């Protein structure tokens, strides 16, 4: 027969699955002989059974409950019916993982119309007894019968006002007695039944309420958000009451063994005298700093300090401890690992290692990857955020950061306003290369279309700039210069705040907390790097980004997107001249000009990288991305290129594609215009030669994008090698270069073995690979992916987190085939998934050599691969 109930002294901390976090820790504290009020835990299995059996407490459970109550009475020498030794208990839920939103606590259970009088006599304090009763009536009513807390509070406050009482403590016993009567009447009015007088009935109803709360909507939503399984159930803890509200020698409080905000190794907490549990959090009375307790109750304080040190050493982590003092005696009601800010998480992990409490490997497992992201970017002040008015919470967290500024609707205006010294937020339905200067000038970018790999997302992430894409519940109308959102309308110049880590946009300005590096962070990152199996490279092409990436620990560059180098107006003109050329000669002239820019760029990039590998991806945008859209822009381009506007329009029309993402892009461009890639390759090799002449060695790796057939790759590789041979012969020097391909199409995955015979390296472009595997446009999928997640069709947006079954399987298969035929081949991942924690957990298991991501994601990626390794080594150590 299943054992559904464990007395506290039968359990221990390793039994969290069965006893929940709270129950297992209460049992553990009992084992440590800490002053924990006695009690027992009903298991999570009992909860699962209850829900399976259609919300019915089984006979087996009831039998065990009666037996345990009997044993409990024996141990405590108290009972629900005793005149002098009255048993009162608290009932608390406690899942394996703590879950706000589930039913929490009922105190003083066991009181009824008779027992309240006994308590008054026993304590010689009628006021105290009725205060306990009214609290029970209120908590029980809310938790068990769903009577809104406000129904009780409304009456309570009215009563206080009518009688002219300032504080709760001013209400005398008689008053509280009246209040209890009224509360009982609320039961009749709201749920048509009286408050149950029988303590065991109170208990069974409370147990059922806890079980049911596992399935309430809030709890389900919380579990989905935090990826907690639905089938683990919650335990119920029943514990003898101790009273923090029994006079000035009593109190209740919560303390952390270290500061949960800064991580500082100092007790941090607060308490209230003559108060019960919820008073501390209710905010009606202002709690005192735990330090004050030293003066008020020195012995209790000292004992608490010792207990908290003991618990921290025992659990080897910062603890969050709930305590109650009853008539000068300390009781511990709960301990758990304390929630902490990102900054505190790093500080505490490093300090615990330095204090010899945990190992470096354990420290690496203690920090959530999200904390790293938080640390590298400013965040909104939590207090200020609570007051903020939401414009949209439907956006995608495209690039982290938190910032405020004036709304602008065009790149020109963004530049204009920022040159005047104003902070601006660029809001557009989507962005295109023409918006780059505006993006650079803005604090953040918000779009209504596009997903995590849209132009806005990729470019902003590369710049380390805050960005939210796909805010589908707002309309950004750039013509009328307004933003319509569910709560109203915003105009150009209005201030908004953007949280790129959450994908939220708010009205007005919100105070931020700046990112700051610390010694602890540096130490922590060094440990991560030393344990990482995968190399982490960066996707970057500008000097500040590359410098940032190397500072964050990147081992090289995994992707230079060369099309990002044509954003500056003078370069864009030349690119347009090339695209719109009629003849081969015109094209060569335009390319020669572009080459002069590229040589300078590549020289800078290769110099910064030195002997670290640097993958330069040859050009890959759909050509139309470089072309003007608006009539105004077209006229300007016509003037620049000195062609009549109608001729230009015709040229643009000729280049128009129905499906540009599937069109003339990537290596296909070089099949039709070989001189394009040859110009880029010349620029790469010439800049490497220049550096060599200065004694600087570099390692350019030339990458051909969007390959689907071996022939595409071989033709281009032959051309490139011939051109490089010629340059080297002329220069009488050679460069250490390699040529590889991106794997971005499902076909490339299927023939990866064949491709691997031809190339030195390959890199999965998971943005395009996801797009082409699903057939979901990376720019438009945001419109329906949310609904796919809601309906359970897809667990996650596959552009944010690898679709293991489909895209992941293709990556696995291609990697195995490629390494089988060419064990020397270097394989990486350079799409956005290269910086995603969950995706890295998968890549780490494959025979992949590196991942590459935007510079600000490098530390998180390093920690991800380090955490995989630490976990693996633990598995083998066991
Ligand atoms: C990719 O497709 O994953 C990739 C890295 O290339 P881009 O995002 O530039 O298309
Ligand atoms: Mg791509």
Describe this structure in words.
This protein has 878 residues and is an alpha/beta fold. The protein folds into 4 domains: 238 residues, Dna Ligase, domain 1; 98 residues, D-amino Acid Aminotransferase, Chain A, domain 1 (2-Layer Sandwich); 137 residues, Phosphohistidine domain (Glucose Oxidase, domain 1, 3-Layer(bba) Sandwich), CATH 3.50.30.10; 312 residues, TIM Barrel (Alpha-Beta Barrel). The chain is built from 35 helices and 31 strands. The strands form 6 sheets. Strands 12-22-21-14-15-16-17-13 form an 8-stranded mixed sheet. Strands 24-25-26-27-28-29-30-31 form an 8-stranded parallel beta barrel, surrounded by 6 helices. Strands 1-2-5-3-4 form a 5-stranded antiparallel sheet, sandwiched between helices. It starts with a strand and ends with a helix. The mean pLDDT is 92. The site of magnesium ion has 4 residues, from helix 31. Keywords: ATP-binding, Kinase, Magnesium, Metal-binding, Nucleotide-binding, Pyruvate, Transferase. Belongs to the PEP-utilizing enzyme family.
Ordered list of secondary-structure elements with their pairings:
Layout: E1 5-7, H1 16-31, E2 39-42, H2 44-52, H3 59-76, E3 89-95, E4 105-109, H4 115-123, H5 126-145, H6 149-163, H7 173-191, H8 199-213, H9 217-225, E5 234-240, E6 251-256, E7 268-273, H10 278-282, E8 288-289, H11 290-296, H12 298-315, E9 319-326, E10 329-337, H13 342-354, H14 360-366, H15 369-376, E11 379-380, H16 382-387, E12 389-392, E13 396-399, E14 402-408, H17 411-419, E15 424-428, H18 436-441, E16 444-447, H19 455-463, E17 466-469, E18 475-477, E19 482-485, E20 488-491, E21 495-499, E22 504-507, E23 512-513, H20 519-531, E24 535-539, H21 543-551, E25 557-561, H22 569-579, H23 584-609, E26 613-617, H24 631-641, H25 645-655, H26 667-672, H27 674-693, E27 699-704, H28 710-731, E28 738-743, H29 746-750, H30 752-758, E29 761-764, H31 766-774, H32 782-790, H33 804-821, E30 826-829, H34 837-843, E31 850-853, H35 858-877
Parallel strand pairs: 14-15, 15-16, 16-17, 24-25, 24-31, 25-26, 26-27, 27-28, 28-29, 29-30, 30-31
Antiparallel strand pairs: 1-2, 2-5, 3-4, 3-5, 6-7, 6-9, 7-8, 9-10, 11-23, 12-22, 13-17, 14-21, 18-19, 19-20, 21-22
Helix pairs in contact: 4-5, 5-7, 5-8, 6-7, 11-12, 13-14, 13-15, 13-20, 14-20, 14-35, 15-35, 20-35, 21-23, 22-23, 23-27, 27-28, 30-33, 34-35
Bound molecules: phosphoenolpyruvate and magnesium ion (MG).
EC number: 2.7.9.1
Family: Belongs to the PEP-utilizing enzyme family.
Catalytic activity: pyruvate + phosphate + ATP = phosphoenolpyruvate + AMP + diphosphate + H(+)
